[in-house]
Amino acid sequence: MKKWMVLMAASMLLVTSACSGGGNGGNGGNASPAASSETGNTEAPGNDEVGAAEEEFAPEPGASLVIWDANNQKAFLEEMGKAFEAEYGVPVKFEEVGNTDQVSKLMTDGPAGLAADVLLFPHDHLGNAATAGLLLPNTVFEDEVVAENVENAVKAVSYDGILYGYPRSVETYALIYNKDLIAEAPETFDDVFAFAETFNDPSQHKYAFAWELQQFYYNFAFLASQGGYMFGDDNTNSADIGLNNDGAVAGAKFLQEIKQKLLPLNTGDIDFDIKKGLFLEGSLALDINGPWAIADYKAAGLNFGVAPLPKVAGNPMTSFSGVQAYYVNANSKYPQAAQLLARFLSTKEAQMKNFQQNSLIPANKEAANDPAVSNDEVTKGFLAQFENSTPMPSIPEMGSVWNPITSAISEIWNDGKDAKTALDNAVSQIKDSIGAN
Q: Where is this region: Disordered (predicted)?
């Protein structure tokens, strides 16, 4: 794990060489209209980067493609789809499917010929898809992808030594704060608690601090900040689960303290949209969120900043980090056209356009070093947290973790259940599920 994190940090120093570094989604989204126009494309992104292989590698006659992605990518992908059709004569249809739902949907729809040709999902879902033989290895554009993208991104979208993905962006979550409500980001949770004494008013739906309580993706940071971990041996040893060790238990107990002092809500009471609404209306001062939220906050004209998560008991909070990438359905009717589209959407120019439109921090090294990215204050905030992040495991056993640990956190938070008991039960369920698969 440490080696992998060092590789990630070293790679991201490429980003920080100008002033910060290129990251993925959300943070970098503070590129100004002027900066966007200077680095933006008026031509179809990717035309110059498909490379020599393009001359021999062409779409199948009569090809048409479908791509799955979240709704916040619809405008970008529809624009890019038109550019791809103009370049290759292949129409592209966007279908909204949540990123974390795609692999499970691919399991049934892929072999049936009903799935999209190109998908976009986080790297931690790669293991299940790859071991099931549902993805086409990225061999045609392997050399270009390896050369152009930061090493951590390439490693993340590879499985068992095989490159599958076409990296789009790197990401982690951090603290987003409303500067009109709190001038400086709190460095510790003691600072958060002190601020809450003058700001919190739950009866008026006014909160100092919040996140998506039902998402273990965020809750992991509280367990990990005091010594909890997912799997041992750099997240490859599923027999070693650290979600119920002493550090994880201390983190779970701290969650109960946060509920008492900051968020007297149940886990189901606040989701992404509710929290976004609170932040936009000034009823929430501090938000744990990722690069994907930045475009909406910018569009609303909010005066906000991004900073590392507050320290817990003197320890930096360890967030999950990830790599978002395009993948090609192994059962696509038009595999050559699909590979060309995945490449087209993941070139330097395409990643820059996605940064400008949606604040996604590029995985491409040259794009990450572009002044529009590297000089961006929001990007630098996310990258500061990135240094304290750990990559989500991509082994298939990760799929056994989410439901049991989410239920345990819900019991701890909503019902006040003993933290050790709830986490022990969750780990027992995880081990049983792994053993049954």
A: 27-48
